[in-house]
Design goal:
The protein has 613 residues and is α+β, with helices and mostly antiparallel strands. The chain has 22 helices and 17 strands. Helix 12 runs antiparallel to helix 16.
Length: 613
């Protein structure tokens, strides 16, 4: 897993030898940033050379700074790196280098509105300090002091403000549209692609033209109900955490129905503060005991725990998670929503892996819901989007080699009758037309996993692990939804038992839904096909988007915040990635820069070599 996430894949330079993990992470941050700045030289000339030289002082200053950036291969303001190198030169060149943010017509209005938007980025779980906010505030205050003293606005200061404000808009807009972190640099199993159509430079142009900066940025946020609900939840959790944290239950404490005493009263207070018990005076007797029992069950249901009304170790651990950690968990999942396409489909199937849940959404309403079994930790279910295009009734199962080697071979070695009892057929290879072999004539104790030659297969039937139907949506992981013969696993609270594919609780209902637009497939026809025992492939009359996602926090339809176990331990890596601040210019380019007026350093300053950063 790479150390540092990025907004876009960039070529990696050679790592320095002997660096610590932290050093490698910092070094790669610098390498990636430097690569972005070096690309500026390629982006500038075509636009800059086609326009007339500006006549006024600030326009001339903006143009000279951008042309200097072309020579130096970097753009720096007041020691801060400007990130929007792909859009800023074009934006100002097309404006003939006229200022956008501080003008005679609008004064400081647009700049002030953007400052407010930067401050409000915290409500999206983003850090305002990542968008030049401190420098912008300082420069605006200086500019206002100059105006109050009757002095003209310093052109260097004005140019710095123009660059920093535009860059702050573009960077925040990029983070709202596609996330601060590139998920594929954190986890190669997250391959959902965002909608690439956002032209942030054009969004900035329209924002300046309309004078409504907030509306332009809001249009880049995910439109999904879940994102807005999580933002509201984050505000509530932060407000509660600012007042006081909820009480911590003693280590190794336990509680079950009928138990009174200090632990019961502390548990009662804890559940009231989280809204799982009504805010009422303490009760006594059977009613109070039942109330506490039901309140604990509600808490367990909202936290992906076994719903038994007992406070065991896992429930105790969840109860003792501090408010600030829950708020941070919400922030992490706001970022994950920014990784998803804005258009999920008018109707679509959504599987949230940590929730062990499949939901069919149609016109923003829940049309069908069911429990699922997902991949265990070492055979994780990936995250991606695809289109379901067909179903297979009574499928056979060509057993993947990894499962054959890791799961079936050890059992065959211990029990010579295992393969025949499980009705697993053996073929000499995966080649078309390969001969079928008698499993009883193979000495499985001599077969090793290295270079395993055989193809194992199960025919359709009640013995088949895929059950009576599977649902295909093409993907590079060979993952699909399917029925299962292990129905008892749906009763477990944590359901990570598969080898990556997703077992579904209600195969008949999902098949009926998938084929509902076809008059030839009413419910009784679907039932007949499943019970026939005959393999049959049916193309869907209309493809259905399928999104396999990974969210550890959400809000249900009643506004209740839910938290689910981070079964693949993905939250800590994302937490660390989001805390990485933008690099300072001194870290990227050394200290040989004139910081007195914020002007761009000349071409002789701190040459950047990709292999050395």
């Amino acid at each position: 897993m790479p150390d540092v996430p990025t907004l876009a894949p960039l070529p990696a330079a050679r790592p320095r030898r002997g660096l610590s993990a932290a050093g490698r992470q910092s070094g790669r941050t610098l390498r990636l940033a430097a690569a972005a700045f070096l690309s500026l030289a390629l982006a500038l000339p075509a636009v800059a050379s086609t326009l007339r030289p500006p006549s006024d002082g600030i326009a001339a200053k903006l143009q000279s700074r951008i042309l200097a950036a072309q020579t130096a291969g970097r753009l720096v303001c007041r020691g801060e790196v400007v990130c929007g190198v792909a859009e800023l030169p074009r934006f100002f060149a097309l404006r003939q280098y006229r200022p956008a943010w501080i003008t005679a017509e609008n004064g400081y209005a647009l700049a002030d509105e953007l400052v407010q938007c930067l401050e409000d980025a915290r409500h999206d779980g983003l850090s305002p300090s990542h968008y030049h906010l401190g420098s912008i505030r300082t420069l605006l205050e200086t500019a206002r002091q100059q105006a109050a003293a009757g002095r003209p606005l310093d052109t260097d200061l004005h140019a710095d403000l123009e660059f920093l404000l535009a860059d702050a808009f573009l960077t925040l807009g990029s983070h709202l549209w596609a996330g601060q972190v590139n998920p594929e640099t954190l986890d190669g199993e997250w391959t959902i692609q965002i909608d690439p159509t956002a032209d942030l430079g054009r969004v900035l142009e329209r924002a300046i033209e309309s004078g409504d900066i907030g509306a332009a940025l809001d249009g880049l946020r995910p439109p999904h109900r879940e994102y807005k609900a999580l933002k509201a939840a984050l505000k509530r959790y932060r407000s509660a955490g600012a007042a006081d944290d909820w009480p911590r239950l003693p280590e190794k404490a336990s509680w079950e129905r009928g138990q009174a005493g200090a632990v019961a009263e502390l548990l009662r207070e804890r559940l009231r503060l989280s809204g799982d018990l009504p805010l009422a005076p303490d009760g006594v007797g059977a009613d109070a005991d039942h109330e506490l029992f039901e309140g604990l069950r509600r808490f367990q249901a909202l936290h992906g725990l076994e719903i038994d009304g007992r406070m065991g170790p896992q429930t105790l651990q969840a109860l003792n998670v501090p408010l600030r950690e829950r708020a941070r968990q919400i922030e992490l999942n706001l970022e994950r929503w920014r990784w998803l396409p804005h258009a999920l489909g008018t109707r679509h199937i959504r599987v949230n892996v940590p929730q062990f849940d499949l939901t069919v959404i149609e016109e923003d309403q829940e049309a069908l819901r069911m429990r699922v079994v997902v991949g265990r930790h070492y055979r994780r279910t990936p995250v991606f989007s695809s289109l379901m295009d067909h179903v297979v009734f009574n499928p056979d199962w060509n057993i993947p080699t990894r499962i054959a080697v890791e799961d079936i071979l050890p059992k065959a070695r211990k029990d010579a009758a295992y393969l025949r009892r499980e009705k697993i057929r053996v073929f000499e290879s995966w080649d078309r037309g390969a001969a079928e072999l008698d499993p009883d004539r193979i000495d499985w104790t001599d077969v090793t996993g290295s270079g395993f030659p055989y193809k194992l297969k199960k025919d359709p039937g009640s013995h088949n692990d895929l059950g009576r139907v599977k649902f295909i949506f093409p993907n590079k992981f060979s993952v699909y939804l399917h029925d299962t013969r292990s129905k008892q696993l749906f009763n477990r609270s944590v359901r990570g038992f598969s080898s990556g594919c997703i077992r579904i609780e209600k195969p008949l209902e999902l098949a009926e839904y998938a084929l509902k637009d076809s008059p030839a497939w009413p419910r009784d026809a679907v039932i007949a096909a499943m019970e026939s025992g005959v393999q049959r492939t049916v193309r869907l009359p209309r493809k259905i988007p399928v999104h396999l996602i990974y969210m550890t926090a959400g809000v249900d339809s009643e506004g209740r915040v839910q938290f689910w176990p981070d079964i693949y331990r993905r939250d800590p890596a994302l937490d660390r990635a989001l805390q990485i601040a933008p690099p300072q210019a001194s870290a990227l380019f050394g200290k040989r820069m004139d910081k007195g007026d914020g002007a761009l350093p000349g071409p002789d300053a701190a040459d950047v070599h990709m292999d050395e950063i």
